[in-house]
Every structure is written in structure tokens, then in C-alpha cells.
Amino acid sequence: MASDYLYFILTETPEYYGHINLGRICHIRRFKYNTEITNSGSTIKLPVFFMGSSLDNKINMSCMKELNLEEAQLLMAILEDHERLKWFKERDALQTALTLSEGAAVTVEEGGEMLRGIIRYIGHQIPPKYPEPISGVFFGIELQGEDKGKGNTDGSYRSKSLFTCEKYSGIFAPFNRVWPVVPASPPPSSHPETEDVSPGDRVTYFVEDHFRHGMVVEVQKKGGEHVVRISTDTDENGKTGGEVEVPLQAVAKGEIPAEAEGMDFDTSQVETNTDDIYTNLTVDSVVEVTLATGNGYGIIRWIGTLPDRQEIMAGLELEEEYGVSDGTFKGQRFFSCPQRRALFVKLISCRPDSRFQSLAANYSEMMPKYGNAERETGHNGVLLDPVPPITAEQVKQLLIGRMKGIQGHCNSCYMDAALFSLFSCSSVLDSMLFKSTNPRDAPIQKTLLHDIVNPLRSKGFVEGQHIMKLRQQLQSQGYSRSFTTDEKDPEEFLNVIMHHILALDPLLKLSAGGKVQDSYCYQIFLDQNHSLVLPTVQQLLEHSFHSAGLKLAEVPSCFMLQMPRFGKKFKMFDKIIPSLELDVTDLLSEGPQQCMICGNLAQVECTECFKDPAFSQTGFKIFCNTCAAQVHSHPHRRSHVLVNLDIPKAYLGHGVPHTLTRDKLELFAVLCIETSHYVSFIKYGPNNQDWIFFDSMADRQGERDGFNIPEVHACPEVGMYLEMPPAELANQVPRDMKGVAKRLFCDAYMYLYQSTSMCLYR
Length: 762
Known about the structure:
Layout: E1 5-10, E2 25-29, H1 30-39, E3 45-50, E4 56-60, E5 64-67, H2 69-76, H3 81-89, H4 91-99, E6 105-110, E7 113-124, E8 137-143, E9 156-157, E10 160-161, E11 170-173, E12 178-180, E13 202-207, E14 210-222, E15 225-232, E16 243-247, E17 251-253, E18 286-291, E19 294-304, E20 313-318, E21 328-329, E22 332-333, E23 342-346, E24 351-352, H5 354-363, H6 395-398, E25 401-402, E26 405-406, H7 413-423, H8 431-434, H9 442-459, E27 461-462, H10 464-476, H11 490-501, E28 508-512, E29 515-519, E30 522-523, H12 537-548, E31 551-552, E32 558-562, E33 565-566, E34 570-571, E35 581-583, E36 604-606, E37 622-623, H13 625-631, E38 642-644, E39 664-674, E40 677-683, E41 691-701, E42 707-714, H14 717-722, H15 726-730, H16 741-746, E43 748-754
């Protein structure tokens, strides 16, 4: 039986066994393990069998981590060893998978898409084959709603029916591709355990209805029960020093704050103000509690009852290490978070984060009132009907200053910068705010419009709580388990919003080899042989399209360009010159184009001339037949291969006028990153000096109990550098550049362009 074995995963390379991949799972019979442990010296080597092998290998125990049976079966479903090791280290994902049950609503990753479904089966696709004691456990998922038909099974595997659903509406997936839509709450244990304490541990103990702190001196057994002798910080009279003896069940490791509940002692007499009950608090609410050291702030990760407790409790993930565990209570896991960030308290002890509540009151007088009083407003005064983008004339009055823009909170800068860039002064993507969407995702669209875009455009300021609300909604819908806590990339957030939530038509249609590919943003890649030193965005895009053999199937309404980087930390270029206009005429796969020499109708393109130093570094090299013959009469170019252009029939035989209208996009925003912090620049007007800079966390009021202060300020110095000759700009020392110009030229992460004509049709 599978339970007759112990299971391990290889986490470090063992001596003499370097050929065995990390992440391999192995097993040993329990009686064999006990024998080896008994007979081993200081270094324990176990004769284990790796899955798929009939030979035992003596592996040092320090190179392995033990798995329980359920963990081993879940991990076995991941085929690649390195992936298995990666997900073993993702303890929260593995523990979450153990709480899933049939009938649970989940999101499953399939072919790069996040699909919604219901778990109909949890188990083996095929039973284990001798000599293997176990095989992988998979989740059988029936897809729901619009995602039906995107699967690959009807619930059967190798002609054996494991569950039943419509054809192509089922998926079998390992746990690392499955996430619960609503976090599951495991049942409370009926076997509470007391956490062990040792001499030297800092502990909290409960005597005479009070919490006190001290250090363990000794643990001894008296009268049949364990007693802990503690050197106290203060005694019952408030004096420093002294020792007390306390029953073990009234002691917990760590310094638990005064409001902490749920440990193994009676706190029924701790006073709680029932007037502070907030019935609207739910999982993922941002709250604060009173701790011994002051106010503590965090997010509710779990709500329910704990063993031996009648009250409704809340499991908090705190912003700082003032907790007592990583989401476990008496050895049982209720949610997952970093060590010393979890705290279990009475739900009635939680209240909404006052930093956001007081913020609105403190700065309401600073917020100018805009808009017609007759316009429909919500309960908080937020305009419900569409508000147009801020115009160049309104920028100074509405946006410039402290407490302007979007307030950052808890690693939200990627989202703050992206939303401010897209919606403050541009309407290019406003269609996503009003298009019909799945009823399940409608609250996200409503939050985006009513709580973020409208206040930003009407008042010039969005409180951090509204961004947190959006992050909570995204997380609760299963698009990511860490939207409320972790830093992410802007393109990840934008892809979720545009593709998965609002199903916006792809912004880009890229043509390659006669096939059209859809995308929402474009990552610039360059071949190793490029000669660019101080490139413009135009040059980077052209070189990237040239090396990848790409064309645009149509002019995009919005073009999001990610700059070439080696990860977030390493830039490919010291400076990049912003192209205020992006000419995409020569990048189109169809349409009339002009000969680069005479201006007549172009008929051929030479990809080999693209890097010829005799030509400009900007623009594809396209010619009419006459100019192509002259250019390629040079001995160095006679071997070049010319490619015929796709010319519209209406132009054949007629040529093309010299005044052919060029398809150009205008720059409206730039996202920048430095030391993992995102900021943005907005090009809000027609002049070179019409730039503003936005930082959602420019300053901070207070420390742990404080809040971030966003700021928007004008940066006309950018225009001065844009007007410099390239050679002079190249010689500029970044640290000596005026104002924030250095961040635009040196730290650009994503450029945003818009077509003022095409956006009218999207």
C-alpha cells in the first residue's frame, strides 16, 4: 500500500549522484527507514528508490525533504523535475491544492489562457504500476460558461471515463495549473496540539486576564502536567524582572500582540468593543487591529471558527512581522503567508484600515470640485457617467501637486503607473470601460470606471483603497493568488484586464509568413549584430521587426512597446531617445508605400540593405524597380535578394503621389522602472515641454501607521533634452541631467503610442 512508504523529494545534489536531477521523488518502506535510522551514525544515508528506477541509491538525508503521501501524489503529476522542485518550494500553492475538493469553482491554465471550471474529479489518470507505490494525482475540471469547448476531453482518459462532461469541455491538469476562485477553508482539527517551547525562546503567556512577555528558562513536569518557568519582562505589579511558572497550555512562542486570539489559552474575558463590528468585512478586506505595539495593518485571508472557539475569527496577513505563524494554527494550515505575518483575531476586533478612511477626510479640503452638480453621482460623490480625459489646459489645475494622481499602497506601483498612463490624459482605451462583459466580471469593470478613472479625471486623485479593491477583485476571481501583495509587471496586469476580464479585441495584429498573430503589447527583441548605440524608439521597433520578419496587418489604435532589457535590472542601452511620433507606414504588410529615393510607388524591398551603412539607420529599404536596379548595380549589393511588395490593385500602373499620407502614432505616455519601482511620464500637450511626471509613492506620511503620498509635477526639462543633437545627448551624464529627465531617457520600460484616427473606430 502507498501508506507503507515514506516519500522524499531531492532538493540538493548528493555526493556521487550528480546525474540525478533535483526535483526527483523517491521512496523507502517505513520498516526499512526505521532500521536505517536505528543503525546509522551521525550521517544518515537512506537506500531510496527514485520513481522510474528499480535500483536503490544511498542518499544523504540532508539532500532531501520529506513529503506526506498527498503532497507526493500531487507533485508526481508534474512531469518535469525542475518544475516539480519549483512548485514544491511554492508551499502556499501546494497547501492550497490540498484543500480543493470536488465541486469547487476553479481557474485552470490551458494553452496560455485562464479558463473557469468546476472540479469533477481528483485522482489518478492511471493507477500506479509495480514497483511504483504511487502515481500522480490530477484534477479533472469541467469548463464553464464561455470557456466550454476549449478543453480536450469529455472526462475520459485512455477510453476510461473518470467524470462526464460535454465533448471538449473537460481538462485534466496538475495542481500547479489550478487555482481556487474562492479560497477554501479547511475543516477545523479535532486534535489541537500545543506548540513546543524551549529554553531561550521568547514567549507570550496569559495570567490573570492579561498577556505578558518573557523568556523561557526551563520546561518541567509537575503533577502530571508540563509547566514553563519564565523570566518575565514585567511581573503582575508592573515591575521589571522576576520569574513565574505557567502551565504549558497558557504559553505561546513569540510576542503575541494584546489583541491576538486563538492560542491555547482562555481569552474569553478579554474586553472587546462590540460597537466596532464591521459586517461588511470579508476575505481580502484591508483592515487594522490594535496590537500591544500600536496599530497593525493587514489583509483578511480567512474567516471562520477555530478549534475550541465559538467566535467568528479572522486570519490576517500582516504588512510587517508582528504575527506568530505563516498561516497555521495548532499545526493546521488555514491560509499561507510569509513567516511571522499571520495572526488570528476575533473578526469583531478588525476594522477598516483607517489610513484610507482618514485620508479622504484629511485631504477632502485640498481636492478641487469639478463637474456639473446635475450629473449623477454615487454615494461617495464619484461621478457615475463618463468623464473625459484631462485636457492640456486642465493639467495644471487638476493634476499638479502632492496628493495627486493615484495613491500607492503595498507594491501597487506597477498598477498605479499603468492606469495613470492609460487614462489620465488619453481616451484611446476608453472602450474597455463601457463594452459589455461577463456578468461575473462586471464589478471589476465598474470599479475601474467609477472608483478609479472617473475620480482621476474629475478630481485628479484616487485613494489607495480603490486600487486595493481592484486588486482584491482580480485575486478573488482567480487570476493570480498574489495581486494584493506582490509586485508585478504592468503587462501582466494589462493582459489580465484587457484579455481575460474585458475580452478587448487584441490591439496588435502582427503578420509573419502570411499568418496573423494577435497581441496586446509588443516586446522589442534585437539580434546580437545590431549597431545601435543611442537608439530612438523608431529604430528599435524597425530593427526588431526586421530581425523577426514581422509586419503590421493594420494600424493599431494603441501600440504598447516594451523596451529591450535583460530582466528588470539590466538595460540593453544606457539611454533611449523617445520618438514623439512613430511612423508605421513601412511596417504595414499591405498598402501603398513610397520609394525611399524618388518617392514614386515602391515595388520591392531589400532586407539586406536594411543594415547597409550607406543608408540611414531609420526606415525599411523599399524601392521602385528603377531605383532598385540602380542601387543594386553596386558590386557589394548585386547578390541581394529583393522581395516584391504587396501593392493594392488600385495603385498598379498609376504610381503614387509624393504627398502620400504617412501612418503615424503619437507618444502619450512612458512607464519607467528603477530599483523595482514604477513611475510614469505623460506627454499631455503638443509642445516638447508638455510633460508631467507621476510617482504614486513619492513621499510618505508617518511610518508603520502612515500612508503614501502620490505626486504629479511638471517636467519641462525633458523637452530641452529632446531638442539636443544626438551626439550632445549621448555625452550627458545621467546623474547630472536636470530634474527627472534621467529617468525617462535611462529607465524606460514601456512606451505607449496612440493613433488619433484609428481609436475612433475601436
